[in-house]
Amino acid sequence: MTDDVLAVHGGTPLNGRVRVRGAKNLVSKAMVASLLGDSPSTLYDVPAIRDVEVVTGLLELHGVRVSRGESDGELIFDPSNVESASTDEINVHAGSSRIPILFCGPLLHRLGHAFIPDLGGCHIGPRPIDFHIQALRQFGAIVDKAPEGMHLTAPNGLHGTKFELPYPSVGATEQVLLTAVLAEGVTELRNAAVEPEIMDLICVLQKMGAIITVHTDRVIEIKGVKRLGGYSHRPIPDRIEAASWAAAALATRGDITVLGAQQADMGTFLNVFRSIGGQFEVTDTLPPNETRPGREGGIRFWHPGTELTAVALETDVHPGFATDWQQPLVVALTQARGISIVHETVYEQRLGYTEALNSMGATIQTYRDCLGGTPCRFGRRNFHHSAVIAGPSKLHAADLVIPDLRAGFSHLIAALAAEGTSRVYGVNLIKRGYENFETKLAELGANVERV
Ligand SMILES: CC(=O)N[C@H]1[C@@H](OP(=O)(O)OP(=O)(O)OC[C@H]2O[C@@H](n3ccc(=O)[nH]c3=O)[C@H](O)[C@@H]2O)O[C@H](CO)[C@@H](O)[C@@H]1O
Ligand SMILES: C=C(OP(=O)(O)O)C(=O)O
């Protein structure tokens, strides 16, 4: 584990520019979608992150040829020879990501059967897959849970269906989309998630030949088609990474320009950022020395130099405040004067990381109650899903163990904001969703080194 430890010498504001590429939560799904086509697909601006490696591995096991294109981050997927893979081979990827569950529909369409390994992803709640399984069964799939994973077949093919999600789950919405596009007949999905990454996946599928209508009130209608072709797509930029750097600027009293960040997908975050006192400026065109095709402008985020203000916020499905923004922003809230309240309504166990912040001098208390907002699914149950943050707190160095992706980034920010040298263990987990984060930190003037 020694190469998985970062010594962080904190206390220096982060200043400079970083670039975000295609969104983790779209890129991996677009890669799965390539399985549905009968000709090659090209995806641009793919970040070098662990989730992309996992999906690449799974695609290759199923006969998809994955190659690099001419431009940096360009990947080409050739699905001409999709084939079965053994459970042993697939299980190499068990526990590494949540994306394998999305192979169900595409593999059933291409092969008539599928094997899905145990899922990974962040440990921020139980993260059941019951909606996925119910939906797949309604399409006509036979789903068998086995100790080594999940086996699926579709002896009578997959047929369009009407399905209402009990909660607008991102993954389950994607599951329905990726299955319905080639299912026979029409599918109506109610209470669908409408995150920007889902809208971008719909763009990908439409480029492939799918017929998908997004109605008002979270209703999505999909008319199954007989065949799909390949796509050529430049993904939306990673709004979660962009917000993470924004939070880092605020927490360290710095000034970070996030090239590639797009205002449209970050409106809710920007409102909260401004309410805390953070300053930002949206630039719609690239500075003269930046010449990247298809990606324009960015957002500069900076600390105002005066005191930050406490806020109350509630995470929610889009267009609410994204749960993945929560952990990095809380570090900045430890620096705001007054009492901030954060009500996490998407995951029941996403506040455990606050203990590490307390060990650094923060004052954060978690509660089972739904504080400061609307009662949610987790109220009156045994989940500490609301946090009260009293600030400002002077953070000091500590030894920290990274529990998951976003908490990991928040630990890093806290260590950078703190006086002294912290040791952050398990930093490689951050690579699952942040491309070249150590290089980016160095470019921003952070004083960090591998131990
Ligand atoms: C790879 C990816 O895109 N990950 C994102 C995706 O995760 P993911 O797609 O896993 O998240 P979901 O939107 O499905 O989960 C939201 C809530 O629904 C619950 N649920 C979900 C499915 C199900 O079958 N049963 C069920 O109860 C979950 O436990 C959770 O409480 O959306 C989340 C919410 O924006 C983000 O935090 C993740 O970064
Ligand atoms: C929860 C997250 O991701 P995943 O669904 O991949 O675990 C995240 O990106 O913050």
UniProtKB/TrEMBL annotation:
Subcellular location(s) of the protein: Cytoplasm
Pfam families assigned: EPSP_synthase (PF00275)
EC category name: transferase
Entry keyword set: Cell cycle, Cell division, Cell shape, Cell wall biogenesis/degradation, Cytoplasm, Peptidoglycan synthesis, Pyruvate, Transferase
GO BP: cell division; cell wall organization; peptidoglycan biosynthetic process; regulation of cell shape; UDP-N-acetylgalactosamine biosynthetic process
GO MF annotation terms: UDP-N-acetylglucosamine 1-carboxyvinyltransferase activity
GO CC aspect terms: cytoplasm
Modified residues (2-(S-cysteinyl)pyruvic acid O-phosphothioketal): C122
Pathway the protein acts in: Cell wall biogenesis; peptidoglycan biosynthesis
UniProt-listed InterPro entries: Enolpyruvate_Tfrase_dom, Enolpyruvate_Tfrase_sf, MurA_subfamily, RNA3'P_cycl/enolpyr_Trfase_a/b, UDP_GlcNAc_COvinyl_MurA
Top-rank lineage group of the source organism: Bacteria
Reaction catalysed by this enzyme: phosphoenolpyruvate + UDP-N-acetyl-alpha-D-glucosamine = UDP-N-acetyl-3-O-(1-carboxyvinyl)-alpha-D-glucosamine + phosphate
Binding site for UDP-N-acetyl-alpha-D-glucosamine: R98, D324, V346
Residues annotated as binding phosphoenolpyruvate: K24, N25
Catalytic residue list: C122
Keyword Cell cycle: yes
Biological role stated in the UniProt entry: Cell wall formation. Adds enolpyruvyl to UDP-N-acetylglucosamine.
Name of the protein described by the UniProt record: UDP-N-acetylglucosamine 1-carboxyvinyltransferase
Organism taxonomic ancestry: Bacteria, Bacillati, Actinomycetota, Actinomycetes, Micromonosporales
